[in-house]
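User: I'm writing a tutorial on reading structure tokens. Could you give me a worked example: one chain, its sequence, then its tokens, then a sentence or two explaining what the tokens reveal?
Assistant: Sure. Here is the example chain.
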Amino acid sequence: MPLFMDVHNGIPEGADAAAVAAAHKADLEVQDRYGVRYLNYWLDVDAGKIFCLVDAPDTASAYAVHREAHGLVADEIHPVLQG
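And here are its predicted structure tokens:
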């Protein structure tokens, strides 16, 4: 499957590392329904961004997992070129 990096521009007010970890855990609980694997995430507090690396059949499936798991959909999703 293709790899994608999603980008969340802006950290929800009051969210901290524990909240982001809980959202990632919720993604893992939902991902099988969409044939998706959320592989890792990164929180950049200084930049106000969250990044998620996802193995998914398409961007719509990646969005669907976030939407169902916690409602915090990515602002951008970019294909990751593998070489």
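What the tokens reveal: The chain has one domain: 3-80. The chain is about 30% helix and 35% strand.
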